[in-house]
Amino acid sequence: MFQFSINKNFFLQALNTVKRAISTKNAIPILSTLKIEVAAEGITLIGSNGQISIENFISIDQENPGLVIDAPGSLLLEANFFINVVSSLPSVELDLKEIENHQLILKSGKSEITLKGKDSYQYPRIQEVPTTNPLLLETKVLKELISETAFAASSQESRPILTGVHFVLNDQKQLKTVATDSHRLSQKVIQLENVGDHFDVVIPSRSLKEFTAVFDDAIETVKVYFAHNQMLFKSEYISFYTRLLEGNYPDTDRLIPKEFNSQITFNVASLRQAMERARLLSNATENGTVKMELKDQIVRSYVHSPEVGQVDEELETIHLVGEDLTISFNPNYLIEALKVIKAEEVELSFISHIRPFTLKGMEDDHLIQLITPVRTN
Amino acid sequence: MFQFSINKNFFLQALNTVKRAISTKNAIPILSTLKIEVAAEGITLIGSNGQISIENFISIDQENPGLVIDAPGSLLLEANFFINVVSSLPSVELDLKEIENHQLILKSGKSEITLKGKDSYQYPRIQEVPTTNPLLLETKVLKELISETAFAASSQESRPILTGVHFVLNDQKQLKTVATDSHRLSQKVIQLENVGDHFDVVIPSRSLKEFTAVFDDAIETVKVYFAHNQMLFKSEYISFYTRLLEGNYPDTDRLIPKEFNSQITFNVASLRQAMERARLLSNATENGTVKMELKDQIVRSYVHSPEVGQVDEELETIHLVGEDLTISFNPNYLIEALKVIKAEEVELSFISHIRPFTLKGMEDDHLIQLITPVRTN
């Protein structure tokens, strides 16, 4: 039966990290608990929803937690309730002691709270990924890859593979990241600083979004490990496991056009605002599209809703070459695409009104995005 | 058919004020619109949900709106949609022009948006309250009265009169404000600076909360007018109408005890935190109560939940007199009561474990609160 004392604020921070893997709506009731494992060298907090598992280790050698261990052991506690109780305690000094029948006594200031826990043997075995031969990635770079691609993954389960982001490492250093929901696509290709072995995996976009929330910017690098159907992102104290999606990711390379008939350069912010206006009215139309018209060196956007009204405006352009064109598309895809472009200017490149068009931030050859038009009459 | 130009940001601010009265879920579809009335001297924006109506006048004499009127008229527009469209416009200069078939053209920068409106004759007649003989109140004082009492009103419609706050003006200057949901009560009595005629009304607490949101602190005073079943709060540019609740408010004066057997003074923050801890566990008990025990000059709080555990703690007290006592109550009522006490210390006064106890901030004789205990075995 374990016993330890710890700084409340540090403990809470670790609890909230692990909580990100825990869902109260899980079909497996035991997964609403978190596991505390107390050993001589430190404590490990564990949470899982079956898809993602997070382990946060706190060492007796760390200074801030002020962790002192009196006896080892392990216990399961209802995660949300336990975290609420810990955060309600009056003092930053916290003593935790397991007593008979898997109960836990928390002492802090003059408060004494006794909570009923569960036997840790009930907790399922967490994913295991062999930690050999890691790929070393900068957290900042990885989070940027995620924010630039994961939004384009599908949120619908009709084609499960499209709910993931495709990560491929070629030539030991070239990392390609692609997501598509079949209406739009976002692909980023970068050269890594460290070499790694070839891999080709599809990571659930939801897991990647949680990864972004868990690994804060203070964690400079993560080690990445792959196993058959799962992977592990590991920093000094945090291990983040996720299942991988099974199946073949579609060949997206062939979708990306190389030659175009018209190209327009816009200011990112002003195009985005114009599309937000268009979206207000396109939301009230049957096919939800905006019409963009390039004619006589002028670009206009146009939406007509029989119910609510119409918007008609000339779009400011910075540069413009090629053939006249009228193309319809969902303004929401363009808005979301523009959100991840860091440059001030964006180039839209068109082949025809029935072929996908591409977006690229000026002076950015790493990120390319694709939007499929909607055929209208 | 009206035509005017106005500063977008000022116009939006007025639109958002009026929007507070407008519900999209109203049973009367026309109440999801807002009315724009354009006259020679300015424009009036009007919104209503049948219970509350708000009119915001913008004058051509005000400097900030930059209002220029070219033609008068009036029109109804879908409130939420119209506000979203206005806020999406690119330039701060905004031209609005009514055209045929109740349509409105908005021009801003290079954008031109046409919206379908409705004939203003379809809009219901707004409440009318004669504006004679006003009671002049400081906005700050009125908002304080509301925040200290309205939370104690009932949120349940089983006794509609208890969903309101009872306002009574006696002796021309003594304003009494009371709310109770029959489990707890909050009463504030103040002396007004300006005299007024006697009134005795019950104002829906929901209306008062909206009043607080609409009248910001820049509005120093409001004039208050009463009619048969409605009232009006009026500042220079804003008129806020609300229906009154009909029926007799219970006689609450007789509920408030004057003599006590035990009195305990606590620090407000530390008592509140202790009750928040107790609530975590009392939420998991059958009757949802915490037990407070005064014995041998020590005060303890105690909750036992067979499912999740127990809390047992000694409460810090500042002063303590009277008989020993054990009393059970819903900690949520005490937490909400403590939230509105501005003093650092609070005095709880008890008669017995079956009689309501009172709360008073130290050196505050204006605000008194009452909490009814729960009988337990």
TrEMBL record, chains A, B:
Lineage: Bacteria, Bacillati, Bacillota, Bacilli, Lactobacillales
NCBIfam families from the UniProt entry: dnan
BP GO annotations: DNA strand elongation involved in DNA replication
InterPro entries named among the record's database cross-references: DNA_clamp_sf, DNA_polIII_beta, DNA_polIII_beta_C, DNA_polIII_beta_cen, DNA_polIII_beta_N
Protein name, entry field: Beta sliding clamp
SUPFAM superfamilies the record matches: DNA clamp
Subunit: Forms a ring-shaped head-to-tail homodimer around DNA.
Subcellular localization(s) per the UniProt record: Cytoplasm
Domain DNA polymerase III beta sliding clamp N-terminal, residue spans: 3-126
UniProtKB keywords: Cytoplasm, DNA replication, DNA-binding, DNA-directed DNA polymerase, Nucleotidyltransferase, Transferase
Gene: dnaN
Pfam families: DNA_pol3_beta, DNA_pol3_beta_2, DNA_pol3_beta_3
Single GO MF descriptor: DNA binding
Function: Confers DNA tethering and processivity to DNA polymerases and other proteins. Acts as a clamp, forming a ring around DNA (a reaction catalyzed by the clamp-loading complex) which diffuses in an ATP-independent manner freely and bidirectionally along dsDNA. Initially characterized for its ability to contact the catalytic subunit of DNA polymerase III (Pol III), a complex, multichain enzyme responsible for most of the replicative synthesis in bacteria; Pol III exhibits 3'-5' exonuclease proofreading activity.
Domain DNA polymerase III beta sliding clamp central: 137-251
GO cellular component terms given for this protein: cytoplasm; DNA polymerase III complex
Keyword Mitochondrion set for record: no
Residue ranges of domain DNA polymerase III beta sliding clamp C-terminal in the record: 254-375
Recorded family membership: Belongs to the beta sliding clamp family.
